[in-house]
Write a structure and sequence with these properties.
Elements lengths: L14 E6 L3 E8 L11 E9 L1 H11 L4 E8 L2 H12 L3 E8 L6 E6 L5 E6 L8 H8 L2 E6 L4 H13 L3 E5 L8 H8 L4 E5 H8 L5 H7 L6 E5 L5 E4 L4 E4 L2 E3 L7 H14 L4 H15 L12 H9 L3 E2 L13 E2 L15 E3 L3 H5 L3
Parallel strand pairs: 1-4, 1-8, 2-6, 4-5, 8-9, 9-10, 10-11
Antiparallel strand pairs: 2-3, 6-7, 11-12, 12-13, 14-17, 15-16
Helix pairs in contact: 1-8, 3-4, 8-9, 9-10
Length: 360
């Protein structure tokens, strides 16, 4: 266990992070292989599971010990009730979640093959419009604000409120946000921590996924740039430091939501004041554990589980956060050490490469 002080609530800041929007329900299907153009394949229903990139982040962060609230909108439908109930199951506060009777909750369709690789279709059901007065109340109560900036104009309005309340701003940048380099530079002016994967970094910024490429983005405002590199791990830079760590080899069942867990773990370690390299290793380990469960929240690890993984101690994983037994997954240093470039069992995981390769 870490010897660093735990994050404690205060009367002024009862939340560590407000997670904005990014909620949906995932229709998860298992297939023997992902279909090609014009192909039809048979599938097996895993379930209709609460998901969404930011919502997954919120639940992962709460599981890791942060005090989290969601600031989002759902429909007054069964899917919306499922989203709220799962937030409550993971200890995510829902006092800032609005329920609208005139809309249906967003959903996605996720196809997962036995290797854990998957494809995702995102189906937004309405355009999010934020209540800025409510946002002001929420962000005045938090140390940090997390969002995927799909709408640049609305993000900037919320970031202005966060900055006015001395809350840190972290974003997750994917190619699906539709930003170009000019828009990205404008967004980064309001950001403290920006997380990319190597495909997202290149697609949106044109930079190579290197320390030098990431460091060039610091000029636009962030104090930290994070880039995940698939099986090669992850890198991060600040003005005074740079770090790169290797990934882990684990038995993979489903990679959905692992990038969200990576970001939650990185922010958790940042708020604890961990050194940069330690933040990366903690985030990589959390994501590696997450892919051993089925569904976006099938195995969200607690902080103690991540630290045990990193220590190389033998620990039976037991049941995932969806109650499903994770058979035969005993973490042991010799079995689950860092990647050595040789063949692996299942899939190499070093962050959220597959999430970006398939659109989430």
């Amino acid at each position: 266990m870490s010897t660093k002080a735990e994050i404690r609530p205060s009367a002024e800041r009862p939340f560590d992070v407000i997670a904005v929007a990014g909620v949906d329900v995932d229709l998860v299907l298992m297939v023997d292989r992902l279909p090609g153009h014009g192909e039809k394949v048979m599938g097996r229903l895993v379930g209709r599971l609460p998901g969404g990139t930011v919502a997954n982040f919120a639940c992962a962060a709460s599981q890791l010990g942060l005090r989290v609230a969601s600031f989002a909108t759902v429909g007054a439908d069964e899917a919306g009730r499922l989203v709220v109930a799962d937030f409550e199951r993971f200890g995510v506060a829902t006092e800032f979640v609005r329920v609208r009777p005139d809309v249906e909750t967003h959903f996605t369709v996720i196809l997962v093959e036995p290797s854990g690789e998957r494809s995702i279709v995102v189906v937004p059901m309405f355009k999010e419009r934020f209540d800025l007065d409510l946002a002001g109340r929420a962000l005045s109560l938090a140390r940090a604000f997390y969002m995927m900036p799909n709408d640049a104009e609305q993000f900037v309005r919320l970031a202005e409120i966060a900055r006015a309340n001395s809350a840190r701003v972290m974003i997750d940048v994917e190619p699906t946000i539709g930003a170009d380099r000019h828009t990205l530079e404008m967004l980064l002016a309001w950001v403290d921590i920006a997380s990319f994967n190597h495909l997202g970094l290149t697609a949106v910024s044109g930079e190579e996924p290197t320390v030098e490429g990431a460091r060039r983005l610091l000029a636009y405002g962030p104090h930290t740039i994070v880039v995940t590199l698939g099986s090669r791990g992850a890198l991060a830079v600040t003005a005074a430091d740079a770090a790169q760590v290797e990934g882990f080899s684990v038995p993979v069942r489903d990679t959905t939501g692992a990038g969200d867990t990576f970001n939650a773990a990185f922010l958790s370690a940042t708020l604890r004041g961990e050194p940069l390299a330690q933040r990366l290793r903690f985030a990589n380990a959390a994501a590696a554990i997450a892919v051993t469960g089925v569904g976006p929240r099938g195995h969200l690890p607690a902080r103690a589980e991540v630290e045990s993984f990193l220590a190389g101690g033998r620990q039976r994983m037991g049941k995932g956060t969806n109650g499903e037994e994770n058979e035969g997954m005993n973490w042991e240093g010799s079995e689950l050490g860092e990647m050595n470039g040789e063949g692996n069992e299942g899939m190499n995981w070093g962050g959220n490469e597959l999430a970006y390769e398939h659109g989430k």
